[in-house]
Amino acid sequence: MHFVLHRAKKKLQAIIVKVSDWAIFIGIVLIGGLGSSYYMVSVGSALTTRTVGPWKTWTHAGRNDADPYTRAHFARAGRLNLTTEIAQTYLASHDSKGRRLHSSCVYRISGDQLDARWWSITALNDLGQLIRNPSRRYSFTSDTIAVSQDGTFEVTLARDARPGNWLPTAGAGRLAVSMTLLEGEAIIAGDSEAQAAEINLPSIERVACR
Amino acid sequence: MKHPLLEKATPILKWLGGIRINLRLALAAICAIGILHICATLAAPMLMMRSAFDRLSPQLPVNETVVFPPVMPGSQPIPFMTPDVRYAMCRYDTSDAPVIVTAELPDLGWSLALHTPDGDNIYAATGVDVRRTNLRIRILPANERFMGLTPEALGMSNTSEKPQTLRSARGIVALRAPDKGRAYQPLTEAALRRFRCSTQKVQ
Fold first, then answer.
1. pLDDT band (50, 70, 90) for residue A94
2. Residue B81: is its pLDDT beyond 60?
3. Residue of B nearest to A40 (CA)
4. DSSP assignment of A100-133
């Protein structure tokens, strides 16, 4: 009787080891396969995105020859982008030192003349929604921004009113800044690689935090 | 003296050292991860029910233009749709007849783009400085279906400017107008309202 029980116990142990091996195998495959796909689709990699300072763009957004990661990213985000052959949309969710943008801080976005026929800059929350504010200021474009005599510009992201180009951030929490460049000179020349090396985008500096 | 972190890590490292890796299983896991990664990535656009086309479709009657009001908080039809641009859109469907799109791009910053339901741009044009750009596009179904005879084939002279022809079953045509400030709003609105999108009558 004792021998039979011992054998049954051994058999059960073997089954448990096998089942747990398979469970670990399936777990690793699911986490590895789905996790890596999720990461590549939501965050991107050097193959699919271009990073310039705090700004990031998907290099093949809206294009016919877009890679599967870019297609999945924009299908998931629900965005309707112009092809990158015409316009580049850069998104920043961190400042130039890599700290998360947050409405409790004041930021200075300063840049030189941008290499584009038309451009815009918009403050959003991290879900891509506009930030409600009484002054109804949401974005500046190359037509509406106040530029200094030497061609440079400064935009201040702050909760309270600031002189100059002020974009209110109210109590939005985590922020994202979107920048669209329409027909950069390198795009017109058909050399997007050169643009990647030479593009000059504004810096985002944290001025103060509450 | 050992570093406290190393002291804590030693039993874990010993345990890991005791694990016998089944090479065949490890290789199978790597292959399975790769297959799942590819399948999940390729299937993602089909599984997303909230693409830009799906979100905009309820607001866009088929083959009719809609001029969107300025984008405001709480009224963004799609995420990251920003108020730096005014939009006029048309959801086209060429299953019954070809669709004719006419638009003008009066200035720099204006653009017209045809987006497929997957979000690809199959056509895009931008305005240039000072000069007005008039566009006339005929969208035909993607397959080689007979859609009627052209005026020329019927022996009539066609005096209208020949449109550019594209092939696409359905999608969205978006006319984007840059925000140039309040003073320009009436002009922008008027130009957006001249945007036309309708089915072409064929015989």
1. very high
2. yes
3. B41
4. BPBTTEEEEEEE---SSSEEEEEEEETTSPBPP-
What tokens appear for B132 in the block? 């007005």
Interface of A with B in 78-137 (CB under 8 A): 78-83, 85-87, 89, 91, 117-118, 120-122, 124, 127-132, 136
Backbone angles phi, psi at B196, to 5 degrees: -125, 145
Residue A179 is classified by DSSP as E
Do both A103 and A195 map to the same domain? yes
Q: Which amino acid is at B121?
A: N
**Range name among B4-8, B14-18, B153-157, B180-184 with the lowest pLDDT average:** B153-157
Q: Which domain holds residue A26?
A: 1-42
How many structural domains compose chain A? 2
- Whether the complex's predicted ipTM is more than 0.90 is answered with no
Write out pLDDT tens, residues A36-72.
Answer: 999 999 888 888 998 888 999 998 888 888 899 998 9
Residues A27 and A126 in one domain: no
| Contact assessment for residue A69 and residue A41, using Cβ atoms and an 8 Å cutoff | yes
